[in-house]
Design goal:
Helix content: 25-40%
Largest sheet: 8 strands, mixed
Strand order of the largest sheet: 4-3-5-2-6-7-1-8
Structural class: alpha/beta
Strand content: 15-25%
Mean pLDDT: 86
Low-confidence stretches: 1-5, 521-528, 807-830
Shape: elongated
Radius of gyration: 41 Å
Oligomer: single chain
Number of domains: 6
């Protein structure tokens, strides 16, 4: 399956073995040559190096979006996809050839391994894992193993704030890259950012900052793993998982080693590690050992797709691209974007009508090769490709310059944030790709220059935006002045908690929590959060001592939550304890920074204050709590006390009726002494209806996880049924369309019972009910709830007969009296 397998050398080994450097030297020793690289950035980097050796008029750069091909070019630096492998050159090399095992791009590298050959010499560069594939596919190849120039060792896990200078932090999404870079801006003054999606111009400008020492840290995607040469001493992994286009998966050990190997250069040793020492983002001991000793599982297959497909027709093209390999170490490549787009367009009638010969099939396949730089997905990208091919297959076969010009003009806008500019550059790459197809435009040189100029302007703007967003030059300078020791920073705390570094405010100390100033992220005044945290220890200790010795007036209960405040700041919350009257105190997490002894003293003070406040504000609950635990109390008394404590001192009698009925006279007297009213409908302490006790009662209920409805306004004795707080939870008994405060409902109940004479019909005095705002309907509901039923009225005046609570609940009123409109007088308690 290979062509001219003689004179093929496979140079295998880990990173920093000088493989790429060797290939460049060998190429330059020949009269002509070509190297295929995995990344546009790497091709550009080597192109710049070879230009210095051979001169710009003899060196070509060919990538999807960039073509610099002088007419006398003899040395070609390309991406693997863009290699003109039919060109006759003396030397050919394929870098990172082990990428033939990559599901997405592997078939390209496998094709180059099989078909790309130099007239005099061919080199395949890759990791040691490629050895069995070389032996199987290129049988006459000479295999040379090169050792790593320096030692790569595991340095353990380190937080971002403790990373050494000249570190590269590797993340696997743009969002994670930006988050890490922003953290480094706060902690260390900033970082350079390198991602595969950046243009070479932006990437070079960012790397130049790092190389020049303007920043000490680099945040990058795994793009740095493919041979980009930088002075990195330590590589830290922010994560060990990546999305590979299909699923989120853990990196292979070989991938980890490829990235970690960027640490160290030539004879200088390097280290690698993670940001955490536990969890899915931490290295395993076997992974560490394999990386340090460069031992990886050999590849057992490469992905393959026909590199020279049949272009006689659309169907023949698709069929040849879907042919399965018949060689044991090759696997059919998963359907790539270009093939998926081809299939979609092949289903269009207009495409079939235009593609009738090999020339047009070739043109269609070339259009399908337009990469999806914007990551739109197959269907949107297929529509874009379809429009391009529509122009390529019609008229003079050129993309209209009006469309091209309009789209380029739309992208020629340097305003916007990092994400916006990066998106415009991705879109510009599509037009750069189109412009670099010499037969797709009437004047490709002009439009290529135009697209390149726009990309350069966007790249410069993106570099400026990245620098403004992720580099705080003042902090960087300050860190160097103090020797990168955050403890040396002059941090001061003002009387209102304002925190400053060298007279520049960076935030406030709210209680025990340090809150960064809102404007800090957008101004040059932002200092180091971590440094401030370290320097605030003494101030927090002083505050803890003051809080532990606070007088009662310094502490307060929050209005809207079971929280304890000190100086206007939350310092603790009430949590479920042994009972409602004995909540547990949980310190706010902002106090975690204190020493254990200080935390204990603060907790003891707040617990003592809470106990005293409950005893003062809610004496009945404290007394009932003691009663339910009193071994001398009768079981009915303990049962009633426990039920009242759970309900916060107000409970419907029907729920505890059996226990109440079983109370003996001494138990009843004890409850009355505590302030408990055993009413006809409810059991309660009227003192709990006052504003301050009611507020504490709500807080205790909320602390136990009870859903507390909004409280009623202070003062009303009767509320509309739909009003806030019109429920027994807040001390109001719902009766028809109104809710009556339980103590007043009980007062009317006593007056009604005092006014009746046995079981004879009688008419209650409505004056008391009317004076508190009760309607006739509400009074009727209350009468029914109290065990009365209507009797035949005399002289038009409603009359009632006592029948007892049980019968009242089951009895409906007659319909020949003044209350005939009532639908149901048997109101159930609840």
């Amino acid at each position: 399956m290979s062509r001219a397998d003689h004179r093929v050398t496979a140079v295998l080994g880990p990173t920093n073995t000088g493989k790429t450097h060797l290939a460049v030297e060998r190429m330059c020793a020949h009269c002509s040559g070509m190297i295929g690289f995995p990344l546009r950035l790497l091709a550009r980097e080597v192109y710049d190096r070879v230009v210095k050796i051979k001169g710009a008029n003899q060196v070509a750069l060919i990538t999807g979006e960039e073509k610099i091909v002088p007419k006398d070019a003899r040395w070609f630096l390309c991406t693997a996809e863009s290699m003109p492998i039919d060109r006759d050159v003396a030397f050919v090399a394929v870098d990172e050839a082990q990428l033939g095992a990559d599901p997405e791009r592997g078939h390209v590298f496998t094709d180059r391994i099989l078909r790309a050959r130099g007239r005099e010499e061919t080199m395949l560069l890759g990791s040691e894992a490629l050895r069995p594939m070389v032996k199987a596919l290129v049988k006459d190849a000479e295999i040379i193993t090169r050792p790593r120039f320096s030692t790569l060792s595991y340095a353990g896990a380190r937080k971002i704030s403790r990373l050494p200078k000249r570190s590269a932090i590797v993340a696997f999404s743009a969002e994670e890259v930006y988050a890490v870079a922003e953290m480094l801006r706060r902690l260390r003054g900033g970082a350079a950012v390198v991602m595969g999606a950046l243009s070479p111009r932006t990437r070079n400008a960012q790397v130049a900052m790092f190389q020049a020492g303007e920043v000490d840290y680099l945040v990058a995607t795994d793009a740095i793993g493919m041979g980009l040469n930088m002075d990195v001493s330590h590589v830290a992994f922010a994560s060990l998982h990546k999305f590979d286009g299909h699923r989120q998966r853990r990196l292979t050990v070989a991938e980890m080693a490829q990235i970690a190997g960027r640490a160290g250069r030539h004879q200088r040793d390097g280290t690698f590690g993670a940001l955490v020492d536990e969890g899915p983002s931490a290295f395993g001991s076997e992974e560490v050992l394999a990386i340090e000793e460069h031992r990886f599982a050999p590849l057992d297959h490469l992905y393959w797709r026909e590199g020279a497909p049949d272009l006689s027709s659309i169907d023949a093209l698709i069929a040849s691209l879907e042919v399965r390999p018949d060689f044991r170490v090759l696997r059919a490549a998963p359907e790539a974007t270009d093939l998926a787009v081809l299939k979609r367009l092949a289903g269009e009638d207009w495409v079939r009508q235009r593609v009738r010969g090999q020339r047009m099939v070739t043109r269609l396949w070339a259009a399908c090769g337009l990469p999806d730089f914007r990551k739109l997905g197959v269907d949107p990208h297929a529509r874009f490709v379809g429009r391009v091919f529509g122009y390529l297959s019609d008229g003079n076969g050129h993309v209209p310059h009006e469309w091209f010009a309009n789209e380029i003009a739309r992208l020629d806008n340097v305003a916007g944030d990092v994400e916006t500019l990066a998106g415009r550059i991705a879109a510009a790459r599509s037009w750069a790709y189109i412009a670099n197809r010499v037969d797709w435009l009437a004047d490709p040189a002009h439009w290529s220059a135009r697209a390149g100029a726009v990309e350069e302007r966007l790249s410069d703007a993106l570099h400026t935006s990245l620098t403004q967003r992720f580099v705080d030059k003042r902090t960087t300078l300050l860190m160097r002045q103090i020797g990168a020791d955050p403890r040396a920073l002059p941090v001061t705390v003002g009387p209102q908690g304002e925190v400053s570094v060298e007279d520049h405010p960076i935030g406030t100390l709210q209680g025990f929590r340090f809150v960064v100033a809102p404007e800090a992220g957008h101004a040059d005044k932002r200092m180091l959060l971590a440094a401030a945290e370290r320097r605030l220890g003494s101030e927090r200790a002083r505050r803890a001592k003051t809080l532990a010795e606070a007088v009662d007036a310094d502490l307060s209960l929050a209005d809207d939550a079971p929280a304890i405040r000190w100086g206007g700041h939350e310092v603790a919350r009430l949590a479920p304890g042994p009972s409602l009257a004995r909540p547990r105190v949980v310190l706010d997490r902002g106090l975690d920074c204190l020493e254990k002894a200080a935390q204990g003293a603060v907790r003891a003070r707040i617990e003592r204050w809470t106990t005293e406040q409950i005893a003062r504000r809610l004496p009945v609950l404290a007394a009932l709590d003691a009663a339910m635990r009193d071994p001398q109390a009768t079981p009915p008394l303990r049962a009633v006390a426990a039920a009242l404590v759970d309900a916060g001192g107000i409970a419907a009698r029907i729920g505890i009726g059996s226990a109440v009925d079983a109370l003996d006279p001494p138990a009843r007297k004890r409850l009355r002494t505590l302030g408990v009213t055993i009413g006809a409908l409810d059991v309660f302490d009227a003192r709990l209806l006052k504003p301050e006790p009611a507020r504490w009662r709500r807080a205790l209920l909320a602390a136990r996880g009870v859903a507390v409805s909004p409280p009623p306004p202070t003062g009303p004795t009767v509320l509309p049924r739909a009003a806030a707080g019109a429920c027994l939870q807040h001390g109001y008994r719902p009766l028809g369309s109104q809710a009556v405060r339980v103590d007043l409902a009980e007062r009317i109940a006593r007056a009604v019972h005092d006014g009746r004479s046995g079981h004879r019909p009688f008419a209650p005095d409505p004056a008391l009910a009317t004076s508190i705002g009760m309607t006739a309907d509400t009074l009727a509901r209350l009468m029914a709830a109290l065990g009365f039923r209507t009797a035949k009225p005399e002289s038009g005046e409603p009359r009632w007969v006592w029948r007892g609570l049980t019968r009242a609940v089951e009895t409906r009123p007659s319909h020949d009296n003044a209350f005939a409109a009532l639908a149901d007088l048997g109101v159930r308690l609840g």
